[in-house]
Every structure is written in structure tokens, then in C-alpha cells.
Amino acid sequence: MKKLMLLIAVCFIFVGSLFAQNIIGNASVEDLTPAFWNPVNGTFGAELGVGTDTTTDVKSKFRSFKITKSAATSDIVGWLSDDNANKYWNNAASGTFSIKASIKTVGVNTAPANDDAKIGVLFEFKTAAGVELSSVTLWAVQSAADEDWADFSDVVILSEAPEQVFVTLFMGKDATGTVYFDDIGCGTDPWSMGVFNSGAENVAGWLDWYGGNGNYTMVTDEEAHTGSYSVVLYQDDDTLTSQSELVYYTQPYPVEAGEWYKIGVWVKTEDVNKTGMGEFTYASAENINGGINLCFFTHGGNIETEWSAQGDRFIYVDQRDSTTDWRLYEAVHQASDLATGISVRARFNNWVTGTAWFDDFSVVKMAVAPTAIEPEDEKTTRVPEKFTLLQNYPNPFNPETTIEYALPNQSKVTLTVFNILGQQVRTLTNTVQEAGNYSVVWNASDDLGKAVPTGMYLYVLRTNDQRMTRKMLLIR
């Protein structure tokens, strides 16, 4: 009796499900709520907002915190920060904390009779159990209804390191009018912590880094791929006298170790420096001066209290022309065996000039799909009906991949790997073979046994009268 067995041809093609979920929060930057801050007894867009008029409502950069009350309320209204003590790279220490804030008032109540009618910034230092170590309030000046920007500061001395540090920007329940807050500070010397999003510059889920002096990165409504907003990066060519990176980046989001993810973004450029670099569909580990890119890395450890980067990867933007319309850039990446999270960033490497808009960021876990299930008589050898070269699997791969092909008749066969420049890298097969199905493993090394770098490669199958070519992607 003949036995039947299932031959499962698995091609490890990485495909996103129709319902694949983007793990990046606020991926299109439409939620303008300040990152790392939470409403207190008010609603964003009503009592709570952000100031954006840089001539009146903002002390520095582009945004500020805003609170408006037209009448007395049952409780305070304001903004409460996340716990800053051990967030990401923060590690609050004992010692002297310098605290500060800048405040501007418009049409507020004057001569407050008690704390309920006052406006201020409260700094709280607590143990892990929530026991208060110390608290200090910086009170706004309310001698007149309108007070221009004023700077306030104080010090707090702690004999033990706080495990929780919170900041509250508030209007007392009996306070009325409008108040703006900017440049909130809390830190030690030597440095051990700071306040995240201290000036409301970053929208929900995002952070930034840039040096000023003619450059900036921010959320804008001047361009958008979808919705109303995008992230803009700008560097003035006239003021670029030294290296200057610009980054607008996400908080880390959880990933599964060893799994594959597709990472993407839409980008539009205007008057940027031309590098001659074309479009890339893979993630490079090379930090190229003058390059505009979607940069990302995976994190290890606790993504809420650590910032352990496991190597930058760059998906570079097409800079053959100085101006391009909206274009999708994406690549795939396998999370390391130690990965617990991922963050992505709109980025100008050193020496980039011009303007670029980024929108619709995405990180999607990929699915591995079988391509065929075929019953076959184990005692019968089938002769392939036609000459076939299959897609390698896995693809992308690291450190090795399998290439399969089929020959309908006996032939002289060569299977050769080339780099994207057309240079020969490795000969995998060079012999006469009978009709049948064949499988070859490539370990990502050249003919001398040297490991080849990350990149796109071509593999070419030639017989007496046939030739087929496919692409494969190596990601180290």
C-alpha cells in the first residue's frame, strides 16, 4: 500500500494581513495633545490647549501649555506630567534639585485671597510607595490681570533619591482667565533627570531633538499626506556651520523578539541637498552624512524605564532631486532575540539642508504564510513540467537563505549571486544536473568565504537555453 505524505512548500513571504495593526501610536500626528502630560479636570480643546502664536503665546520655540477658565470650577484645572523620575534615560538622584517655569497671564483674577484663586506650578517628589518627600509650588504673579512672560525658580534639597517626580500646571478652582506655561525645568547638578516635553513642543507619543540656530523639527499643518498634519524638518543652509542632526521620534512600542516587522513612512522634500542617492527599499546600518531618512532601532529591557538602543537602522530618502512629491519608503527588519521595543524617527543626518515632511509612520508585524500544500506519492519522483526559479526563503534573511529551482530536463546549470551593482559575489552551482527539483543554501558569504554586507542581491539561474533572475535581501 502506498503511503502518502504532505510536502509543505513554505516560502516565508512576509505579507501584512488586511487587518495588520500599526503598533505606532499617533502615527499620523493628528493628536496634538502634549506628549507625557495628562489633562486634570479639563478637556483638551476646551479648558486645556496649547499656545502656538510665537509672537505672544510662546516663550521659546513653537508651543506652550495653555489653560483657560471663564468661571470658578469645583476643582483645579490643569496639566499633570507623567512620572519623570526614572523615565527612559532619567535616573533621579538625591541632592539639590533646581526647579523653574515661565508663566504668562491674560485676563486672570487679581489679588487672590487664598490658594484656591491662585495659579502655579507644583513640583512633587515621592517614594516608590507614593509617600511625599517634598513639594514646592512656583506661584504666578497676579497683581495685574495681564502679566507678560516671567521666569520663576526655586530649589529642593532631598536626602534620598525620589522614585516619583510629578509636575502639575494648574489654575485653582476659583481662578479665572487664561494662563500660558513654558520651559518647565527640574534637574540636578550633576544631571540625573529632566522634565519630558517641558514646553509642549511634542504631540502625543513623540519627542524631538535639534540644536536651533536656523533648524527645527515640529508638527505642522502646512503639508500632510493624510489628515491635516505632518512632521516637518528644516535646516537653513545659510546658518549651517557645523554638524547638526534633527530628529522627531516616537516613544518605544513593544515588539516580539525574533519577529519580522515592516517599517514605513511617507516623505515629501523641498530644496534639500542632493546626494545622488536613489530610493532604498532596505534598512542600512550606515550613517551617511547629508542623508534624509526614517531611522529606527529596537530596544531591550524595560521600555518604560530604559533606553537601550540596539543599533540604528536607516531607510534613506531619494535625494537624486532636490524636490520630490509624497513617496512611500519602507523596509523590513527582524527584531533581535533580546528586543522588547522599537522606536522610529524622522531624521536629518549631519549636513542636511532644506525641508522634508514625514507622515503616516508605520511598524507592522509581518505574517509568515505557507504557499502550497501538496500530497505526493513518496515512491514516485515527479519530473518538473517547466524550468522554474523560486523566491528564496526566508526573505529578507540573516544569516542564510534557501534557493530552490526545477529543471524539466538534463542541463548544464549555473546558479550565481550578484550584488546590486552587477558584480559577481558567489557561485552556488556550476555543474550538469538531471531533471528534478533542487535546493541550495547560501550563507551570505562570497567565493572567498568572506561575509557580505547588508543589501539587495540578485541570484541568476542559467541552463543551456534558459535564464531566470530574482532579488533577495540580506539584513544583518
Structure description:
The strands form seven sheets. Strands 12, 15, 16, 18, 19, 20 and 22 form a seven-stranded antiparallel sheet that branches. A five-stranded antiparallel sheet has the order 2-5-10-7-8, with no helix packed on it. The protein starts with a strand and ends with a strand. The chain has strands at 4-15, 37-40, 48-51, 64-69, 77-81, 95-106, 119-126, 132-139, 147-158, 164-171, 177-188, 206-209, 215-220, 230-235, 246-250, 253-254, 260-270, 292-300, 308-309, 313-316, 324-334, 341-348, 354-365, 367-377, 388-389, 401-407, 411-419, 424-433, 436-442, 455-462, 467-474. It is mostly beta strands and 476 residues long. The protein folds into three domains: 37-188, Galactose-binding domain-like (Jelly Rolls); 206-365, Galactose-binding domain-like (Jelly Rolls, Sandwich); 381-474, Immunoglobulin-like, CATH 2.60.40. Helices cover 0% and strands 49% of the residues. The chain contains no helices and 31 strands. It is elongated.
Pick out its properties.
five-stranded antiparallel sheet, 49% strand, seven-stranded antiparallel sheet, 476 residues, Jelly Rolls, 31 strands, 3 domains, mainly beta, disordered N terminus, Immunoglobulin-like
| Strand count | 31
CATH topology title of the largest domain: Jelly Rolls
Percent strand equals over 45%
**What is Rg?**
29 Å
Roughly how many Å apart are the termini?
48 Å
Number of helices: 0
Structural class: mainly beta
Shape: elongated
